[in-house]
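Much of what follows relies on a compact textual record of a protein's fold. A record is reproduced here so that you can trace the correspondence yourselves:
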Amino acid sequence: MGVVSESDLLAKVAFEASGHRPRPIGRLRERRLHGKARGETAADLMTRPVITVPPGATVAEAAWLSALSRLKWMPVTDREGRLHGVVRRDSLLQALTRDDAGIRAGVEAVVEATRSPADRDAVQVAVHDGIVELTGRMPAATARRLLAEIERIADVIEVKNLLGPGT
């Protein structure tokens, strides 16, 4: 139905502390805040409509919606409006700014799952500013699958394939 945010409560507290009244020909937003500030129930104070993000949204999609809406947190709801959780802006930012070491760990896990046990040290991974560089040897078909998987890893900007043919 709606959400009571810090901003909604701040307007109420500021109104009560300052006694501020909107100008007779005040801006619409100021009038809305004044109306909320006089509210006595959650329904009076809450912001409507609620801006939510679906559970299947990517981190980037959720971050973009948060930025456009200037929200510090957003409810995660399904199509029926059931609450699954809340995502905070700082969590989104942290997920989007993973460092090279974090990217490398993710790439190495994919390499480990893709290569055969006999090719223990066949592929080396380097990451700099989100650009992944693969060197070593690997069969062409396996390398294609590996590259496709690595390109789907969050924060990977580019993949430089320097792999030679393997046995």
Notes: The chain has seven helices and five strands. The longest strand covers residues 131-138. The radius of gyration is 25 Å.
